[in-house]
């Protein structure tokens, strides 16, 4: 079976920045599982895996436009410090989570005062070319429940 819309893909990946620094990796843990073609992964990633088979190794280099977009200079927002989660004391450069109407969102602290903080809402990898090294472990047809929910279930996927 090859990767196509409505298939559940299990894979291991390592993510690198432009200087070849490892950002994150699933090696040593469970394979990541996602439902292909349902916007669960960045578009350039899914496009590069379309048609691939289990057992394949794929190297994927994505420009900012294919990954997390260009950095936006107007993405600085002022929020109450009490809305930042992830630490007790905040400093410039730290990553925080802010809960929004669209769900949790990662932000980078730019400036922090006693009650308010200026945060950069750009994705931390916005404006960067990134590279994934991917090992496809397994591919299967999605269940009716996974299709209804819009994501993969089970190990490496969503747990209900």
UniProtKB/TrEMBL annotation:
It catalyses: [protein]-peptidylproline (omega=180) = [protein]-peptidylproline (omega=0). It comes from the Bacteria. Keywords: Chaperone, Cytoplasm, Isomerase, Rotamase. GO terms for molecular function: peptidyl-prolyl cis-trans isomerase activity. InterPro entries: PPIase_dom_sf, PPIase_FKBP_dom. GO terms for biological process: protein refolding. Its EC number is 5.2.1.8. Pfam families: FKBP_C. It is found in: Cytoplasm. Its main location: cytoplasm. One of its GO terms (cellular component) is cytoplasm. Also involved in hydrogenase metallocenter assembly, probably by participating in the nickel insertion step. This function in hydrogenase biosynthesis requires chaperone activity and the presence of the metal-binding domain, but not PPIase activity. Belongs to the FKBP-type PPIase family. PANTHER family: FKBP-TYPE PEPTIDYL-PROLYL CIS-TRANS ISOMERASE SLYD. This is Peptidyl-prolyl cis-trans isomerase. It comes from Venatoribacter cucullus.
């Amino acid at each position: 079976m090859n990767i196509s819309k409505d298939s559940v893909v299990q894979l291991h990946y390592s993510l690198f920045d432009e200087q070849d620094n490892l950002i994150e990796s699933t090696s040593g843990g469970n394979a990541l599982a996602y439902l292909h073609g349902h916007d669960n992964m960045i578009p350039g990633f899914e496009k590069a895996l379309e048609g691939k088979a289990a057992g394949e190794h794929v190297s994927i280099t994505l420009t900012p436009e294919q990954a997390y977009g260009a950095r936006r200079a107007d993405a600085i927002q002022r929020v109450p410090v009490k809305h930042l989660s992830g630490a007790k004391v905040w400093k410039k450069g730290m990553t925080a989570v802010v809960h929004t109407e669209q769900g949790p969102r990662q932000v980078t602290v730019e400036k922090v005062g006693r009650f308010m903080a200026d945060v950069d809402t750009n994705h931390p990898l916005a404006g960067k070319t990134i590279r994934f090294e991917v090992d496809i472990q397994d591919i299967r047809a999605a269940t009716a429940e996974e299709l209804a929910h819009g994501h993969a279930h089970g190990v490496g996927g969503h747990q209900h």
